[in-house]
Design brief:
By secondary structure, this protein is an alpha+beta fold. The chain contains five helices and 13 strands. The protein folds into two domains: 76 residues, RRM (RNA recognition motif) domain (Alpha-Beta Plaits, 2-Layer Sandwich); 103 residues, RRM (RNA recognition motif) domain (Alpha-Beta Plaits, 2-Layer Sandwich). A hairpin with a 2-residue loop joins strand 4 and strand 5.
Length: 208
């Protein structure tokens, strides 16, 4: 829940999940801590996420002013979010389900063919594509899969964060179409998911 979660910035590179948890345990019981790392190197991005058991712990965490290994950290509240249409005006709360899923946190050596192979276990695939930079051709760290059936979508999204490709747990989410003449695909944003709380740009790009 966003009312129980905080983001932590300016973390020293040596801080791991357990150390981050130890620094904030005095604020209350903690359900989850995560230090974000680059897929290509495993190096810390200097950012972390903490989900507490109680909203009261968030207020205590926001009041913390401290240094870790000589670096002054910054703690902010995780804000509730809503889906954002890609290149299509304001977000809307009414969406039409599609047979498409979004797959994020892909290792940069994963191509469209491998993405298709990995998800064929969930049903017939119409198309699979890893998004790439136009100038360099390098992977942008996410992709889309079009299934032949919505049943396949339901099976796939049950494996959100538990499905691994090349050793990395990936983000798996439904896609929706926003109302309007262009029917742009909108990734589903889960305000309770630490990945969504951190990487909430309109492009969903994990560009490290």
């Amino acid at each position: 829940m966003t009312d129980r979660s905080v983001n932590v910035y300016n973390l020293p590179p040596q801080v791991n999940d357990d150390q981050l948890k130890a620094e904030f345990e005095r604020c209350g019981d903690i359900n989850l801590t995560r230090v974000w790392r680059a897929l290509s190197t495993g190096n810390s991005l200097g950012m972390g996420f903490i989900q507490f058991a109680s909203p009261d712990s968030v207020e205590k965490a926001l009041g913390i002013t401290k240094e870790i290994a000589g670096q002054l950290i910054r703690v902010t509240r995780v804000s509730p979010m809503r889906p954002k249409a890609l290149d299509y005006g304001p977000a809307t709360t009414e969406h039409e389900p599609t047979k498409t899923i979004f797959v994020g946190r892909l290792a940069h050596d994963v191509d469209s063919a491998q993405l298709r192979r990995e998800f064929e276990r969930f049903g017939k695939i119409v198309s699979a594509r890893v998004q790439r930079h136009h100038d360099s051709g390098k992977s942008r760290g996410f992709g889309y899969i079009d299934f032949a059936s919505t049943d396949s979508v339901e099976l796939a999204v049950k494996h959100d964060w538990t499905f691994k490709i090349n050793g990395f747990s990936v983000k798996v989410a439904r896609n929706y179409r926003s109302p309007g003449p262009r029917h742009d695909v909108v990734p589903f944003v889960d305000a309770n998911d630490p990945y969504d709380s951190f990487f909430r740009t309109g492009s969903w790009e994990d560009d490290y």
